Amino acid sequence: MVVKHSKAEKKIAYDQKLCKLLDEYSQILIVGADNVGSNQLQNIRRGLRAESVILMGKNTMMKRSIRVHAENTGNKNFLSLIPLLVGNVGLIFTKGDLKEISEEVSKYKVGAPARVGLIAPDDVVVPPGNTGLDPSQTSFFQVLNIPTKINKGTVEIITAVELIKKGDKVGSSESALLSKLGVRPFSYGLIVQAVYENGSVFSPEVLDLTEDDLAVKFLVGLSMATSLSLEISYPALSAAPHMLINGYKNALAIAVETEYSFPQADEVKEYLKDPSKFAAAVSAAPAPAPGDGGAAAANEEKKPEPVEEEEEDEDLGLSLFD
């Protein structure tokens, strides 16, 4: 004999289950469940059963349970879930990796026909080619302005046509044509709309970020903070090296133009007084490492002058008129 519970008992049981899940799990995926059937939902439950729990229910009941539980426990982080409970949504409580769970959920999608009045989630394009329909069906194509021709007793579409645009309502003619062509253009499943983790709520796109993406974003933010600090002369840690170098440059410029000096400027002043020291410093620089072409150049520079040139110099030095 099956015992039937009253609505009040069902609400109490649901409230207890939701509160227990809130206490046990710190990670929640808020998923949209439009056009998801019961069989499809059962398959998703079985696929995630190892480390996740799916909870569906009325938004008003979930909001009330969350609000009361937050007041009873003093944990106000749960309240950030309430604004997310809009439309046909459910909660996936998990202790696993959020990215892996999100990818697993996206696997359970099934094809669906274009029903009349449905808002198209994607563009629908009818490709060119033979449709297999007899010539009596050309009226459907004419109504939708799809160019066709009769080829071997069947209707053939000449060029690809965008039949339905994303966000448009599916009309009766579009629905009938796609049905005749056997096309199921849409696919439905649970769609992750938001992610809750320890009181923080963020977009599911964050789950797709890699460590390299985070490093790039961090460097961009650091560069902007450094630029702002330099512009307003605020000594931030990232801007300190640049400020020190700029200060040194300014002090060096003053020392060069005036009699004021300091140890670091003395060497620069000495080089400016005797530019030949620059050449000496360059010649004293270490030779390039072998293998980079520098060694060959150095060897060429060290080659003695040709014998012929030396003999010419000797001849010039011994004139007959001496």
TrEMBL record:
What Pfam families has UniProt attached to this entry? Ribosomal_60s (PF00428), Ribosomal_L10 (PF00466), RL10P_insert (PF17777)
Which residue intervals make up region (Disordered)? 283-322
| Keyword Ribosomal protein applies | yes
| GO CC terms in record | cytosolic large ribosomal subunit
Query: So which domain of life are we looking at?
Result: Eukaryota
Q: Where is the composition biased (Acidic residues)?
A: 307-316
Ordered alphabetically, the record's keywords are: Ribonucleoprotein, Ribosomal protein
What range(s) does the Large ribosomal subunit protein uL10-like insertion domain occupy?
Answer: 114-183
**GO biological process, any:** cytoplasmic translation
Q: What does the record give under GO molecular function? A: large ribosomal subunit rRNA binding; structural constituent of ribosome
Gene3D superfamilies under this entry? 3.30.70.1730, 3.90.105.20
Keyword flag ATP-binding:
no
What does the UniProt record say this protein does? Answer: Ribosomal protein P0 is the functional equivalent of E.coli protein L10.
In the record, the note on similarity to other proteins reads: Belongs to the universal ribosomal protein uL10 family.
Task: Kindly state the subunit structure of this protein.
Answer: P0 forms a pentameric complex by interaction with dimers of P1 and P2.
Please report the name of this protein according to its UniProt entry. Answer: 60S acidic ribosomal protein P0
What is the protein's species of origin? Coffea arabica (Arabian coffee)
